[in-house]
Design a protein that fits this description.
It is globular, with a radius of gyration of 12 Å. It has helices at about 25-35, 55-70; strands at about 5-10, 10-20. The chain has a two-stranded antiparallel sheet. Strand 1 and strand 2 (about 10-20) form a beta hairpin. The protein has about 70 residues and is α+β, with helices and mostly antiparallel strands.
């Protein structure tokens, strides 16, 4: 399954990036955050989709989203 990050402004998609390898997730996500200057933007929502997948994968995804929210 492809992995992706996306930025929405109100209800419109403004930017997105996709990749295939899950081994690149951390690097791709951090690059996406820097590229879109998300630290300076007011964010209202950070979401994730991880499925189909196991319970551990869903918990790991939730943890990653919480860390990203804390960092930016």
């Amino acid at each position: 399954f492809p992995h992706f990050c996306a930025v929405f402004d109100d209800e419109k998609l403004t930017n997105y990036q996709t990749w295939e390898s899950s081994r690149e997730d951390a690097q791709r996500i951090l690059h996406f955050i820097k590229q879109n200057d998300l630290k300076k933007q007011k964010r209202q929502f950070i979401g994730g989709v991880n499925g189909p997948g196991g319970f551990s994968s869903l918990r790991a995804t939730s943890c990653i989203l919480n860390v990203i929210n804390f960092l930016i």
